[in-house]
Fold this sequence. Notes:
Elements: E1 2-10, E2 19-33, E3 40-52, H1 53-60, H2 69-75, E4 89-96, E5 99-109
Antiparallel strand pairs: 1-2, 2-3, 3-5, 4-5
Amino acid sequence: MTITVRDLAAGQGQIERPLRIDSLVVDLRDVAVSRDFSSVLATSSTTEAHASYAALSTTRGARVPALSSGLGRIVSTAIPLDGLPFGVRVDGLDVNPDGLVLHLSGTNLT
Length: 110
């Protein structure tokens, strides 16, 4: 089962400027639904979250030029990601011409 979320505010209510996640794609495996449809369990998941340089600029309050030395300053600063759904954890981070790609995963998700 794949779930796509667009325009997600990570850290909303916890920091002054939440990080806007442009898209979050969650691939859930071995999904089981309770008889009354009140709960869902996925044995594992993998996720990719895309954040543009514009979103990073808004979060940091300063313009972040794409693939420049300014990027090092933003990546070295902690940005809370507590607002991500499904209890996923961050496994890695890639930089591309459009922004950052977070790689996430989780197990026994309810």
